[in-house]
Amino acid sequence: MNTLVEKINTLKREKNAVILAHCYQNVEVDEVADFVGDSLYLSRKAKETNADIIVFAGVSFMAETAKLLSPDKKVLLPRLEAGCFMANMINIESLREFRAKYPNVPAVCYVNSTAAIKAECDVCCTSSNALNVVKNLCAKKGINEVLFLPDTYLGKWVEAQLGGAVKVHTYNGFCPTHLRLRAEDMEKSRSEHPNSKILAHPECHHTVSALADFVGSTKDIMEYVKNTDFKEYTIATEKGVFDRLQRDYKDKTFYLLKDTLVCQNMKWNTLDDIYNSLLREEHEITLDRETSEKAMACINNMFEITKPLTTTGGR
Question: 45, 167, 271, 273: least surrounded by Cβ within 10 Å?
Answer without folding.
Answer: 167
